[in-house]
Amino acid sequence: MAPTVKVLTSEVVVPAEETPAGSIWLSNLDLAARRGYTPTVYFFRPNGDPGFFAADVVKGSLARALVAFYPLAGRFGVDGATGRVQVDCTGEGAVFVTARCDYALDELMREFVPCRQMRDLLVPPTPAPNPPCALLFVQVTYLRCGGVVLALSMHHSVCDARGAAHFLETWASIARGDDADANANAPVPPCFDYRLLAARPGPARAVLYDHPEYKPEPEPAVVDAGAGASDDYASAIIVMSKAQVGALRARCPGASTFRAVVALVWQCVCRARALPPEAETRLYSMIDMRSRLDPPLPPGYFGNAVVRTSVSATAGELVGNPIGYAARCALAATSQGDDYARSLVDYLEGVDAMNLPRSGISRAHLRAISWVGMSLYKADFGWGAPAFMGPALMYYSGFVYVMNAAEKEGALALVLSLEPETMPEFRKVFAEELASLEVL
């Protein structure tokens, strides 16, 4: 029998203190973000504390976190004069659910992959992501063994993954009882000045790049057009050891860990899909521009500060060359700076940024996102760091997240989705590549 969840409570948690009212203008990057909620899960092992993830402690610390992150207690709104979406700081609160599940943590960790079944089991349901919807949904699920799953579903128009991690780190710090004034490592206050990413005034506006990632994708010319983007996918979590990551980087001189890993995944995906040598394959990525802008954004910038980028090659070029070639291609897709970001913001000023194409990608392509560096230990609510964290759902086939592996120093976890018929061959090809790294 499949595990089931029983909802215990469902309520709205409001900020613990009065918060600023009014509306917050959203940047073009916020408008261009995927219109929907991003569901993530955090698995925690029981630690013997009778107060482990007590609902009143979690709920009380959430109320205090919403004081600093008050937009999350608001609602998605619309400027009546311009029709532009915005955040209305109403202080109405976040949805907070507690539930009980007959999974044990070890069973869950063996079976978990991001998919609709797991999302529906562990993440609270969300409404259509349109005004006047709530922006944050939280669920605490108590497992049979005493462990806990904490799930968040946050509206993507409000912030990106880095911003969501910032909120969670602040919430966890409050739950631990940290003294923010005395703790040098306390999370910095959030910054909601999204006009830092406003388009330049008319005469100064300059679109210097093409930005194809924000335009409808043409039908593939070589790969069978009937095998285009699909909601049907198989997902997997694959761990690379510290030694394997080091050996791979040694084969990709000058490449970052993310670029080296993505290069290997991209190459193996082309092989598993048996793409014709002349087929174009495109690597899409999302780049955090906070530190790349001139001047950089404030450390606590909470909105969407990522831009979509891409680079293309033929399948024959990727498969027929050493891995360093694919890594150099990945570098070309992930090295953009201030001029690129400002060009994109200016470009979005001239299009309908609220209705950009947001569908999946052709099965010839791959989308890779880095969550490396989002430290799991900072999600310690006082009862220990998570045993796992990751997305609860993959949106379509051809998606890969690269992140730090929990409880394994220096290791990486790859969370990916592929066509169901492609995944077995990918696992085989990728395992062979990992084995070859181990003998170097």
Give a brief outline of the structure:
The chain is α+β, with helices and mostly antiparallel strands. It has eleven helices and 15 strands.
> What's the main sheet like?
6 strands, mixed
Gyration radius over CA: 22 Å
CATH H-level superfamily title of the largest domain = Chloramphenicol acetyltransferase-like domain
Average residue pLDDT: 91
Shape: globular
CATH architecture of the largest domain: 2-Layer Sandwich
Show unreliable segments: 219-230
Count of β-strands: 15
* Secondary structural class: alpha+beta
Walk me through what this model shows.
The chain is α+β, with helices and mostly antiparallel strands. The protein has 2 domains: 191 residues, Chloramphenicol Acetyltransferase, CATH 3.30.559.10; 211 residues, Chloramphenicol acetyltransferase-like domain (Chloramphenicol Acetyltransferase, 2-Layer Sandwich). Helix content is 27%, strand content 22%. The chain is built from 11 helices and 15 strands. A 6-stranded mixed β-sheet has the order 1-6-7-8-3-13. A 6-stranded mixed β-sheet has the order 9-15-14-12-10-11. Strands 2-5-4 form a 3-stranded antiparallel β-sheet, with no helix packed on it. A hairpin with a 7-residue loop joins strand 14 and strand 15. Helix 6 crosses helix 7 and helix 7 packs across helix 11. The radius of gyration is 22 Å and the shape is globular. The N and C termini lie far apart (45 Å). About 3% of the residues have low confidence.
